[in-house]
Every structure is written in structure tokens, then in C-alpha cells.
Amino acid sequence: xTTAQSGKLWMGPGTLEIPLELFALNRRRLVERVLPKSPGxxxxxxxxxxxxxxxxxxxxxNVFRQESYFMWAFGAIEPGCFGAxxxxxxxxxxxxxxFPKSYAIWMGPLHSLQDxxxxxxxxxxxYADEIASVLKKLDPTVLLxxxxxxxxxxxxxxxxxxxxxDKFKVNNTILFDExxxxxxxxxDEEIAVMKYVVETSSTAHRKVMRMAxxxxxxxxxxxxxxxxxxxxxxxRHVSYTxxxxxxxxxxxxxxxxxxxxxxxFIKDGELCLFDMGANYFGYAAxxxxxxxxxxxxxxDQKLIYEAVLTxxxxxxxxxxxxxxxxxxxxxxxxxxxxxxxxGGLLKGDVDAMVTAGLGAIxxxxxxxxxxxxxxxxxxxxxxxxxxxxxxxxxIEKLRTNRILxxxxxxxxxxxxxxxxxxxxxxxxxxxxxxxxxxxxxxxxRNFGGVRIxxxxxxxxxxxxxxxxxxxxxxxxxxxxxxxxxxKYN
Length: 489
Hints:
Shape: globular
């Protein structure tokens, strides 16, 4: 299905052609970064992902997706691979599985090493079962392997392991922070891929906004999104489980999981909060649209929606190199609280509300996160970067406290949700309760929530919004009514 011809990866006519130079450039960046810290003749060794069996069956779990660090450096989409880079010279080696002849019966033609060399633009290709002997001939002083903790999941990155690795000196302390930090800053080639996957996801969101009607199920809306991303955009994967939440489900931050599988039928007059993002050769989009299924906002829906939009735009306007991401989180919270006060839900001093952590009652998640080869991309909390903050309440949920810099891609996703357990907690708190207007809060108990999430690129001149969906109340109502057909092209 995928092809690699004339130095590119793509999914056929009409889809983006990714130059293999993208991965070669990433390898050069990595060598330049690691070289000053590498003793003698060091060799970087990364292990790709493996297919995972579906419990005890002979079926693998879902469609294989390559391990992200390996994809960043080598661009190979097959499971069971390894890659090596000689730090002193940058010479690259790709190791691919060595299959028996019977593989051709079930899985297709056996490709030669030269086929893989042509496909990925890497001259040195070997079988994976030869990795120890090939590395021995290189006579490395040390193998640099990847080991570190992902600050979002708490899981450890997969360190390369193969028969015979015990014969080499291994250092697993240098590589993780360096490659994670490099992934934070996107090259021109990577930015082009991210623009494509965000545009594909944006178009799919716009289609869903028009097809979502009372009587439709949440999963039918999810299906429409998936169909466009794959059938038109060539995105075989999505970057996370789609969140297709209607009415009160919109207050469930990670709705759509196995116990709540987007299976509610939407009713007239309700809001839909759809958080969905396609994935193209590993690169992720992450967009949330909130809209009324009727095509017209009620007064209360408009109040909350415009409060969140005001927070979103405040951050977008302020985001630029040199600005701290936690400051943007606080700005979003303060703006939201100001708008809720104007709407009659809150009373009192807004700065005091921020100090009291009231923002976390209405937005219990962080403002946004790094985006790239993972939807919650790496590099948030690594050596040399600011540690996780704890005050004001809620800021500890931020996935990074970094200072914004040119070539970062992040999401801006403020939200406002009416979650009973959090509202009850605030009303029982002697400090937070003084800011709440109970009768008005009661009116919003079954409201659900609003989230507005954009994917933005930080440039020297400020933030650039890669997302192309209707955002204002008027734009959304016009779009659902069938107007502005050419506006987002």
C-alpha cells in the first residue's frame, strides 16, 4: 500500500510525499548533538517496534505502528527492525527481519536487502540476526542505547536488546535526553508533514460537523472522521482513541474508551465535543471542535463557548518565543474565570480565584502539550528543562513547563466543564465556594463541557495556527448551515 519511490514515502496519488531526507536530516542532527559527548568510536543503536499478539491468539493487536524514536531516525515502517548510526561518520545501518521462504506464502514477496536500501535510502542494510556480527566489525568503543522515562505515561522507552549485546560496552544515559529534545524542534520537512495531517484532520472535522444530526450516534460521527482521514488522506492510523462526546459526556475528559465507547445517540439541542486527530507516517494531529448539533447555539451554550474561545485566542495572541508555557496556562485560566464572572457564574476578585485554584475546577487538565510523532510528544520534562510546577492548583497537569521556542508545535486547548464531583468539592471548600454563584452553577449541572483545541506552530514572529475549522459562533452556525464552502480551502 505504501510506496517509497524516488526518495519519498507516501500513500499514493493525492497524499503527501514525505522525502526520505526528513529522516536523514534527523540522523545528522542527532550525530551533531551526540558527538561531543560520545567517547571514541561510539555507535547509536535503536530498536524498532514489534507486533503485539492479541492476548494468546495468533492475531496481532491492531495495525502495527512503528516505535516513534525509531521512526524519527530511520523512517522504516516494518516491525522487527534495528538501526545503527556511527557517530564519528554518520554512516547508517538498517537491520531488517530475516524471514523463511514460507513467509512469501502468507505475507507476500520476500524483499532483498537491496530492496530495503532503495526503499529507505540507506546503503548499508543487513538482516537483524546479523546485528551482533556487523557491530563487532565496526569495533565500537561503546553502544549508545535509548533508556528513559516518558513523563506523560511513566513508562520506559524501549532499550535495544539483541543476542550478543552483552559482548559490547553499553551506555544508556546519553541518548534519551538528546533525542527527546531534538524531537521538540521540528525541521521544515517535519512541519510540512504536520501541516498535512492537521489539514486532513481539519477537513474531516468539518465534514463531521455537517453530518452530525439528532438521532445519529457518536460512533457514526467517529466513523465519518476515520473514513475521510484514511480514504482521502491516506492516514491509516489515528493518533489516539477518538473522543466523540455529546451532552454530559463532554465533561468526561477521555471519553471514548472501552467502557464508554462513543455509543450514545445524540439528541436535538445538545452540544458535541469531538476530539480527534489523524496520523500520517507517525506524525500526529490533535483537534477538538465543540458545536451544537442543531446548528444554533443556545444562550447558555454561547456563553460558555465564547468564554473558552476568548481564553484560546488570548493564549494564541501571547504565545511566542521566550514566553513560559505555564504562564500561558495561567493566562487561559484567568481569562476563562473572567468570562465566567461576566456570565454570572462567579463573583469576586479574579486574581484571588486564580490563587485559590478555581481554574482547575472548570478546567482540570493542562492548557496543551507538545505535538509531533506522539500526540503527547516527548521532551516535556527532561534534564535541563524546568521541573513540573505545583501552584496554582491544576498547573501540575501541564505536560511541559518549557519556555516557548521557534519550531515547537503545541496544542492550545482550554476548556470549561461542569463536573459534579469537582463542583461539589468547590462548593464545600471555604475558600473556593466564596467565588461561586450556586443558583447559576446549578443551572449548568447537566451542561457537559466545551473544549477548543488548535494545533499551532511557534515561529520567530509568534504562533501560526495550522488548524482550519470554523471557530466563532457565527462561523460554526454558518458552516453547519452549508455556507462558507470555500473558506477553509
